[in-house]
Design a protein that fits this description.
Elements (H helix, E strand, L loop, with lengths): L6 E7 L7 H5 L10 E7 L3 H10 L5 H6 E4 L12 H17 L3 E4 L1
Parallel strand pairs: 2-4
Antiparallel strand pairs: 1-2, 1-3
Length: about 110
């Protein structure tokens, strides 16, 4: 069995992303004091994955256009996981952050 190496990560998005109707409508109950974020998962180091997004390689459009920086304080507590566990944690972390008032995009 392979060693766990997938990680979840969180990218802060420029507040200008709220001008995007689809993003705004997905986050109607956000706390304006909290940042907009993207939650993802990767088999790479999160820094490398963020750089890939910004370079347009398998990029999420919101990260490509609005990604500012990684927010390790929101994801570093999660250890490396197997793929399926990381996929589930990505969804759960997005839910947690949304409940805390963050405007969240996940996949």
């Amino acid at each position: 069995m392979s060693r766990p190496h997938h990680r979840v990560y969180v990218v802060e998005l420029d507040p200008a992303v709220l001008e995007e109707k689809r993003f705004r409508e997905a986050n109607t109950s956000r706390d304006p004091a909290k940042p907009c974020v993207y939650v993802g998962m990767t088999g790479l180091d999160p820094k490398t994955r963020f750089e890939n997004h910004k370079a347009g390689h398998k990029a999420n459009r919101y990260v490509l256009d609005y990604g500012l920086r990684l927010l390790p304080g929101l994801y570093e507590e999660y250890d490396a996981l197997r793929y399926r566990e990381a996929a589930e944690m990505e969804i759960e972390l997005a839910r947690i952050l949304r409940r805390r008032g963050y405007a969240v995009w996940q996949k």
